[in-house]
Amino acid sequence: MEQLITLEQVSKSFSANAKPVLEDIDLTINDGESIAILGPSGSGKSTLLSIIGLLDEPTAGDYLLRSENITALTRKQKSLVRNAHIGWIFQNFNLIASMTVLENVVQPMRFNKAIKSSEYIDRAKEALNDVGLLDKHATTPDKLSGGQQQRVAIARALVNKPALILADEPTGNLDQATGDEVMALLQALCDKGSTLIVVTHDESVAQRCKRRIRILDGRIDYDGK
Ligand code: ADP
Ligand code: MG
Q: What is the pLDDT of residue 5?
């Protein structure tokens, strides 16, 4: 399997004298993996995911993308890498309330130089079709159920066909049945080629993933099947 992202001796502190939130993390993520990140509240799961997803920077250590060390890139350069390669899904969906469903799904393509603006609508509709919500394209998010909103967020995350999908407690605001449906959908779409990392408290979600990583007190406590 080809290496997608490698973290080497990554640590993160939010203030100089406080205990680090992450300490000496060594982690390799390969193409095609599905990974669940588990651990108690406050253990550092979201911080780790934010570093993997280039939303936050480590205070020490190295970040390699396809074996290339990109630690020293500027924030701006990293955001370009993020927009091109990474799709994010959040617990609170983070859809833009003033935009239609279709416009929400179009947004990530505006940051992707590889996609022409003439393709935006067709690609957004294709992504909505993949999550079973093409008929809702003209509506606004407030008219949708939580499960439907999360499916729109999945379409938005997948529309750039990113190498990596990151989801931070994506089923945390959904009931069990809806959460199971959302995860099944996410997994099916990732089976088409994206790598998936999901932070979750939900054992049924974790069981869908082939690898599990447990974080305890800012360190990797378990990494295996
Ligand atoms: P988890 O997702 O496992 O619940 P987090 O990664 O959100 O944990 O947080 C880990 C620790 O880092 C917590 O103690 C939290 O308070 C702290 N933390 C997270 N983000 C920040 C921040 N922006 N500033 C200061 N402390 C933070
Ligand atoms: Mg968290």
A: 97
Q: Is 25 exposed, middle or buried (0-12, 13-18, 19+ CB in 10 A)?
A: buried
* pLDDT value of position 23: 97
Structure tokens at 145: 């159920």
State the Cα–Cα distance between residues 156 and 12, nearest whole angstrom: 29
- Rg for the chain, CA atoms, rounded: 17
Residue 205 structure tokens: 């979600």
Give the CATH number for residue 87: 3.40.50.300
**Which ligand does the CA of 45 lie closest to?**
1
Regions of the chain where pLDDT drops below 50: none
Query: ipTM of this predicted complex?
Result: 0.98
Q: Which domain holds residue 218?
A: 3-224
- pLDDT at 84 (0 to 100): 85
With a 6 Å cutoff on the Cβ, whether 200 touches ligand 1 is no
pTM of the prediction?
Answer: 0.93
- For ligand 1, is residue 20 a contact (CB within 6 Å)? no
Distance 168 CA to ligand 2 centre (A): 7
